[in-house]
Write a structure and sequence with these properties.
Layout lengths: L10 H25 L1 H26 L6 H29 L7 E3 L1 H6 L2 H10 L3 E5 L7 E3 L1 H18 L9 E8 L5 E7 L27 H11 L3 E6 L5 E7 L4 H9 L1
Parallel strand pairs: 2-4
Antiparallel strand pairs: 1-3, 4-5, 5-7, 6-7
Helix pairs in contact: 1-6, 2-3, 2-5, 6-7
Length: 265
């Protein structure tokens, strides 16, 4: 049986496909950040308002005949703290938004997820959603591209937040949980108690352009599964119990030989 060599992409074609995939991942990342813009704006507005208030307080204190210098100093310290808080939000946004070439490294899952807390909380509060992260103990390290995995998790959390829009506020909760599987790998679940996914949509959930959103592109979950595979992992869906949706990202534990090689470089 002869193999049709023309059916395989050439190296230039493969490079072009990889570049296209990188651009699509970047566009998907920017789209996710854009969807979170209201919450992010609120998160930035809080420290900026605090800076303005403390600055006005300093101005009033210094205008007194006998100003309390200690009180002025404390206000200035608060200005510094709030400015650093705003700067940290911007730094994390820039790290997520900038174009990046794939770069895999040894990573601990729980800190990787925890870095997203401020951004997720700002978006969740804006939509009256409670966000909880339940980190599992003694998880093995994984070999992943950190920004890609963070983008994937942001996509899943954003989907859950949007799915809870029609749910009463007291029932709106998104839970992210990390555990070690029986085979020694790492499993991250993102679950909610929204309406879930219909049986007709579920089999095609990760197909490109499959969406239940009126203004959705249908690329978010497809790109998320692409990211999972690019990091040697899997991304699957199952109904949450008693109701809602649960997405599971499974990442293989880093092999000791790979970890040692990375430390020698």
């Amino acid at each position: 049986m002869k193999t049709n060599i023309q059916s395989f992409p050439s190296f230039p074609e493969l490079e072009a496909l990889l570049r296209l995939q990188e651009r699509l991942l970047h566009v998907s990342r920017l789209a996710t950040i854009g969807e979170m813009s209201d919450g992010i704006a609120h998160e930035l507005n809080q420290p900026l308002c605090a800076v303005a208030n403390y600055a006005q307080a300093c101005d009033r204190l210094l205008a007194l005949p006998d100003p309390d210098i200690q009180e002025v100093r404390e206000s200035l310290q608060e200005i510094t703290a709030q400015a650093l808080r705003a700067g940290e939000v911007i730094r994390r946004l820039r790290n997520l938004a900038r174009p990046q070439q794939a770069c895999h490294e040894l990573a601990s899952v729980n800190p990787l997820i925890a870095e997203l807390t401020d951004l997720i909380q700002s978006d969740a509060k804006h939509h009256q959603v409670r966000y909880r992260f339940a980190p599992g103990p003694d998880l093995p390290n994984v070999w992943v591209d950190r920004p890609q995995i963070q983008q994937l998790l942001l996509n899943l959390v954003r989907n859950s937040i949007e799915a809870l829009a029609e749910v009463p506020p007291e029932a709106r909760e998104v839970l992210v949980r990390s555990v070690c599987t029986a085979t020694g790998d790492v499993e991250i679940t993102v679950s909610d108690r929204g309406p879930g996914v219909s049986e007709g949509i579920a089999p095609h959930l990760f197909a490109p352009f499959c969406t239940t959103k009126s203004a959705g592109t249908g690329l978010g979950l497809a790109m998320s599964r692409t990211i999972a595979r690019a990091n040697s992992g899997t991304l699957d869906y199952r109904p949450n119990v008693p109701k809602g949706a649960c997405f599971t990202l499974t990442l293989p534990a880093a092999q000791p030989d790979r970890a040692e090689a990375s430390m020698r470089v």
